Amino acid sequence: MAALGVLGITGPAWAQPTANPVATFSGLDKITGRITRFDVYIDETVLFGALEITPRACYNRPATETQRTSAFLEVDQRSLTGTSKRIFTGWMFADSPALNAIDHAVYDVWLIECDTSTDVPAPDARD
Q1: Helices and strands in the chain, H and E counts
Q2: CB of 60 within 8 A of CB of 15?
Q3: 3 state DSSP class of 96
Q4: What are the tens digits of pLDDT across the range 17-35?
Q5: pLDDT tens-digit map of 79-100
Q6: For residue 63, what are the CA distances in angstroms to 14, 93, 112, 124?
Q7: 42, 45, 89, 122: most buried by Cβ count inside 10 Å?
Q8: Has residue 58 got a pLDDT over 50?
Q9: CA–CA separation, 77 vs 51, rounded Å?
Q10: Are the beta carbons of 27 and 107 closer than 8 angstroms?
Q11: 3-class secondary-structure state, position 99
Q12: Residues in a beta bridge with 15
């Protein structure tokens, strides 16, 4: 194997994922049947129904790799008393939304894409 390195031959090179500042989701309210598409900045929390959704990372991978878009999320359920309970922490994949789905009786949320920009004002621009 060392001889291959000397000859300039190496194993397969894996492309690094590209981090993005915005995650785009779709959410389904199962009671009304309404689907909503929404953008969320990384480390910002949005409320979708009773769910507080906070993406911590959103990556695109080259088209040559199987999972091209993934996001790490934290999802809390807000109660009527105002307290929150964590119901999901983990990776969500746009190409396989059911792989790591949020298990909720009223809401479904899935990752659509990661992006570099959005029409939503940046968190520091809203102050």
Answers
A1: 1, 8
A2: no
A3: coil
A4: 788 899 999 999 999 999 9
A5: 999 899 999 999 998 888 777 7
A6: 12, 14, 15, 33
A7: 42
A8: yes
A9: 5
A10: yes
A11: coil
A12: none
Structure tokens given for 105: 């009786």
Please give the pLDDT value at position 125. Answer: 62
HEC string for 65-107: CCCCEEEEEEEEEECCCCCEEEEEEEEEECCCCCCCCCCCCCE
Helix (H) or strand (E) holding 6: helix 2-6
Enumerate the β-bridge partners of residue 109: 27
Across the strands, what pairs with 22? 41, 115
Residue 127: the pLDDT is: 52
Say how far apart CA 87 and CA 17 lie, in whole Å. Answer: 27
Provide the residue ranges of all domains of the chain, joining segments of one domain with +: 15-117
Amino acid code (one letter) for 63: A
Whose tokens are 């969500």? That residue is: 92
